[in-house]
Amino acid sequence: MPKFKQLPGPEVVKILEIFGFKIHSQRGSHIKMRRVTEIGKETLTIPNHKQLDTGTCRAIFKQASQYIPATELSKYFHI
């Protein structure tokens, strides 16, 4: 399995914006991103930190994979 990159929070936000997610709200250092589809609302929470640990990037990838095919996400999250 490929290794995960350490990404900054703002870069993860930009990646998810490519797939149609928009910033819905922010509380403290966490940004809620939402995408509305025919099925319903899809929400992801992203820490807005300078550098995210690989485990955090893995967790965001896993959550986002519920809504976006993992093959499309992997080019942004894997080394």
Automatic annotation (TrEMBL):
One Pfam family here: HicA_toxin
The domain of life for this entry's organism is Bacteria
According to the UniProt entry, its GO molecular function terms are: endonuclease activity; hydrolase activity; mRNA binding
Q: Which UniProt keywords apply?
A: Endonuclease, Hydrolase, Nuclease, RNA-binding, Stress response, Toxin-antitoxin system
Against InterPro entries, the record matches this protein to: HicA_mRNA_interferase (IPR012933), HicA_sf (IPR038570)
Protein family (similarity comment) = Belongs to the HicA mRNA interferase family.
| Entry protein name | YcfA-like protein
